[in-house]
Amino acid sequence: MCGICGMIQWDGRPMDLDKLKAMNGFLIHRGPDGEGYYSNTDSGATVGSGGTRFEPALLHGHLRPAVGLAHRRLAIIDLATGDQPMPNEDGTVWVVFNGEIYNFQELRRELERLGHAFRTRSDTEVIVHGWEQWGEKAVERFRGMFAFALWDERRQVLYMARDRVGKKPLYYVLGKNRLLFASELKAIVQAFDDLPRVIDLTALDAYLTYGYVPSPHTIFEHVRKLEPAQWAMCTATDFRVHTYWRLRMDDAVRNAPEGELAEELRALFDEAVRLRLISDVPLGAFLSGGVDSSAVVASMAVQNPGDKVKTCSIGFHEKSYNELTFARLVARRYETDHEEFVVKPDALAIMDRMVWHLDEPFADASALPTWYVSRMARQSVTVALSGDGGDETFAGYVQRYAMGRLEDGLRRKLPDFVRRNVFKPLGALYPRLEGAPRPLRLKRFFQNLSLSLEEAYCRDMAFYFQPEDKVRLYRPELKKQLETSRPQDVLLRHFKDCPSRDPVTRAQYVDIKTYLPEDILVKVDRMAMAHSLEVRAPILDHHVLEWAARLASSYKLNGRVSKYIFKKMNEARLPSDVLYRKKHGFTVPLARWLRTDLRSMAEETLFSKDSGLAEYFQMETVRRLWNAHLTGRQDHGTPLWGLIVFEKWRRIYLEERSQGR
């Protein structure tokens, strides 16, 4: 795992190597083991800390455009010779790469048969020779997690690519005569003072809906993110983006015998885990006590019976949030080298550092335990395997998916007239009863029945503020500027790409395209890399994803049993108390903490004279939310946390312009 950055200038100016080094400096946490630079200037290129030098390539006697690539290294494979930027044999192709290509040994053998000569044992070199052999289609052969940028001096083209599900990030700025790119937003905006830090208000609107800023947008107007499964090619006259992989989820599903499917899945899953055990440094695993991480640990232990797996778990004093009991069951069964950390409210002393590392406003409070489990793991390993992606791949969000299926069945039976003219007003009139027993919390159910499947999904994913909430929250000027803003469009465009008519499959598809890469994987990447830890997610191997995508949804959500076939596959490996207990999300007791230990921090952030929230929001509405939350009769913890995080981010990135945390 590493950090990458670079720039191209097309206007004839020389490369500003100081700026390139400044960008790279902001990524040191992603790669503390070394740095390397390439520039096609008279000074040539230096690879690694000591390294090999190459003479610059010439184009008709001129050094144009000016190209600079930089890399921060977290050494994991080929510790001795894997430095970057890495060239081909004659120094005309250079790459900087963040991630892992798990099938690199297989690809290397194929490329050697085709006549390519390798100088290292690194997976990075496969990218260089793969480009020479297959061009932009090389990325379709890579099995792994990655973001990379490759400069081809002969063709005068910069090629950038991101892995299929978006495990590794890539930001870029495309100007009239300049392209900048980096693994993290901070490396761009904090190294270049001439870039305006102007908030994209439609991105802010999306953040206050979903808790993150969806790709390709960022919180800043001029910066973009390359989306998962995309590559981009940039020349002096053209910039184009192409989607190279699409997950097929349609109604042409498999209905093989259950036992046969479980065996197929076990073989695929174990292979995905085995590939992610390739490392020249110590590795371990996150163990939450849930099905997914427990299955990963079990596979690691079964495949390497002589090695004791290092496992790390997070817990809470609040019993309803604590899963350590289940993590211990798995740790004892496989005799792992187990370590635990209990998160308390005072753990949020690191909140400003956490916000800085996240780059953009990001309101998923489970970033906090992810920070601490990453810190704990890094004390003994450099690589950790995780269970991320299980919920999206095998339909683990049982409440949301099951309700979506129920609602869709009722929609098909009820006439539109009844849905629109009975349930819509009923949903509007029914009170919000956040603190009431679940059967009395029917407002959303009534509202959803009056909507289409797609519209209801968009409301369900609006965890922070619904449109009617924003009417009271936004200042009149902001409302006017956002008259045409439709945060739901980013979700609806993915619904259009999914041909399946099954409600569970359709919701899964959009989750895989949005919530997974924009929330789950951002959280894991930033919090782990803040501690120079690489996290690998075998469930998100694209072979596993493609296999699961072809299953009938009944093999994933069977009645009220979520991840049905995944659990069946693990019955011989995991205790039933782990497999078939009620699902518990990886989250924190935020509502209670805001009323108690975090109250003073929250009030200072929201209401002090230093707060900038009044520029955007009607503070009397924020005050009403806060006071209602403090009474304990209503739970506004999630939307309030979204506002707190935004204000923390605003101070760090717009006022302090912090240079590091």
TrEMBL record:
Q: Where is this site: Important for beta-aspartyl-AMP intermediate formation?
A: 388
Instruction: Give one Pfam family, short name only.
Output: GATase_7
List the active-site residues: 2
List the pathway annotation: Amino-acid biosynthesis; L-asparagine biosynthesis; L-asparagine from L-aspartate (L-Gln route): step 1/1
Which residues does ATP bind? 314, 386-387
- Known EC number: 6.3.5.4
| Keyword Metal-binding annotated | no
- Record keywords: Membrane included? no
Q: Which reaction does it catalyse?
A: L-aspartate + L-glutamine + ATP + H2O = L-asparagine + L-glutamate + AMP + diphosphate + H(+)
Q: Name one GO molecular function term.
A: asparagine synthase (glutamine-hydrolyzing) activity
Q: Which family does it belong to?
A: Belongs to the asparagine synthetase family.
Protein name in the entry = asparagine synthase (glutamine-hydrolyzing)
Natural source organism: Desulfacinum infernum
Gene behind this protein: asnB
